[in-house]
Amino acid sequence: MSTKSTSKGSQPISSFLLRKPKVRLISLLTLPMTWIVGVYIVSLFLLLITAFWNVDPFTSRVRPGFTLENFIMIFTVPAYIATSIRTLFIALSVTAICVLLAVPLGIYMAKIANPRLRNFLAVAITLPLWAGYLVKIIAMRLVFTEEGFFNWFMAPFGIRGPGFSIPIVILTLTYLWFPYMALPVYTAIRQIPPNLFDASSDMGAKGFTTVYRVVIPLIVPAIIAGSVFTFSLSLGDYLAARFTGGATQMIGSIIAANINLNPPVAAAYSMIPIAFVVIYLMVARRTGSLERM
Amino acid sequence: MLRLSRLTRVALGIVVLSILFFMYTPLMVLILNSFNESQISGWPIDNFSTKWWEFARSYQPIRDALLNSVLVATGAMVIASVLGTLVAFAMKGFSFFGRGTVNILVVLPIALPGVVTGVAFSNTYSNFLTPMGFNIGYFGMIVAHSTFCIVMVFNNVFARLRRMNPNLQEASADLGAGLWQTFRLVTFPQFRTSFAAGALLAFALSFDEVVVTIFTAPPGVDTLPLWILKEVGRPNQASVVNVVATVVILLSLIPVYISQRLARAQEDE
Question: Cystine design at A190: which of A110, A237, B131, B236 (Cβ 3.0–4.6 Å)?
């Protein structure tokens, strides 16, 4: 369209821009890129720089310089190592539980439910995503508190909840991020051609064998795409641990606790979740799952 | 068809019911507790009343927090709408070197953990801008929110632009319209529904965001989620917190609902 110029002279700017697509592209991108790079990427970069600074022990102000102390601390202080491992464990558990719930849900929605029920379930699964992040955490807190719903509901069976602890953190994070796993898995199961199921059963496979040998291998990319969310969102979270975890600390807890006391340590520790997320994204990308997102 | 035994079907049905129970019980417990007459929330609820709703309506800190939330979400929505639309137009009309990078840059602010984004902004504001004599204050919160809201507008507008007929714009140019005139009379009417849907999602995203807000809100300024956060720090959950939480649920669901309706209306066109 750049070749078709308008009546010259009447609209000089428009005809100039129409003839110069590069100028048009630059004028479109300048403002948003200045914003994202100038505000956000620069901030991330400054965070990385701050990770090599230290804090003046007398004035407790941040002091420019170059030290690897903060990074050495993260990898040698046992409490920090334990927190990294604990956080990784929590994020992986959340992802595993999400998969274990999403597959039967997806099979039910795609293969058993009638269209009306299917649409209802799709909305029912998506809706809580928008109910508010903090709201859902404090809702879980209400359910699992000492005098809460869970203990009341389970009292007839003689079961009492574990109180605020790591299992409840895992449950809360599952509650928060489950839709991100459920929706891609459901979509993937729906897209499996029905004749594959016929072929499988013609060859004598029972339902479970078909699920295990046909469905699961075909939905692996969707599971990976969903796990990018469940894993990285859990990994960076700390409010779930703060409100439903009792004394449980995650990577985010330590970053948040240090940002005012010792910004360089917080900055250095921030690099851990960034590294985890980037590695995870790269692995996911190699499997080709990211194009589905 | 997938052949499953009757027992398996029943078992799957039970799993689905349990999932729904798991997803909706906490929200129900929370909403019902906003009508709990006693000061401390719990279960079962002995007496229902609208006492805390009336209290919240006239309680100044909650009203201030609501005002802040609306201001920040509106500011973020406006900035993100402009920036997201510009990126969408660039990505639609051109294939250029670094296209993939631009895409990643737009997604990155919500892909990285909120605590990292929050700490990065906080670090820039307090360890770089303030020593340089520049106090960003209230606007810092809006800047941070705008940054991670861009992707919402971008996704919606970009999806729509991809399905639009480019001939209409060319026809408009052939007929002598300038770029601005074409945009105003031809292009914008075609994507304004997606634009509005994206803007509403950006509003909703900003409205219930809390982690980045913790690190970027100036001292003494609360948004609704920040106010909740401070109150929940105490050992027992006060029932008035559930009132505010219910308001947050409603005020984030309403824009999303309208946004979905708009998206559907556009598909029907």
Answer: A110
